[in-house]
Amino acid sequence: MQTAYFADGCFWCVEAIFQRIEGVSGVESGYCNGQVKNPTYQDICTGVSGHAEVVKIEFDESLITFKRLLEVFFATHDSTTLNQQGNDKGTQYRSAVFYPAENYH
């Protein structure tokens, strides 16, 4: 199993997309890349914690590639809008890809 973290807008909407993909075994909403340890949803909504809303995606590389997940990521949001996805505005809605370093050599 591999893990990737995608930030591409409201994590509940993103979660629903990736849960439907064959080869994805788990999707969990959370926050990434901020300055506040263990932030609350209210901390994130202020936009000052530095976090992005993300989904943690666990996937089986024998069933789906990371490249295919990236294709879905880019097809399901506008990565060119700074700190915004649709009506959701704020730094927490920025587009980003994060991954655990131990997965890649």
Provide a compact summary of the structure.
The protein is an alpha+beta fold and 105 residues long. It contains three helices and six strands; from the N terminus they run βαβαβαβββ.
Describe the structure.
This protein is α+β, with helices and mostly antiparallel strands. The chain has a single domain (2-100), classed as Peptide Methionine Sulfoxide Reductase, Chain A (2-Layer Sandwich), CATH 3.30.1060. It is 23% helix and 30% strand. It is built from three helices and six strands, in the order E-H-E-H-E-H-E-E-E. It has helices at residues 11-19, 41-45, 66-75, and strands at 2-8, 24-32, 52-59, 84-85, 88-89, 95-98. The strands form two sheets. The chain has a four-stranded antiparallel beta sheet with strand order 2-3-1-6, covered by helices on one side. The longest helix is centred in the C-terminal third of the chain and has 10 residues, at 66-75. The two termini are 15 Å apart. 26% of the residues are buried.
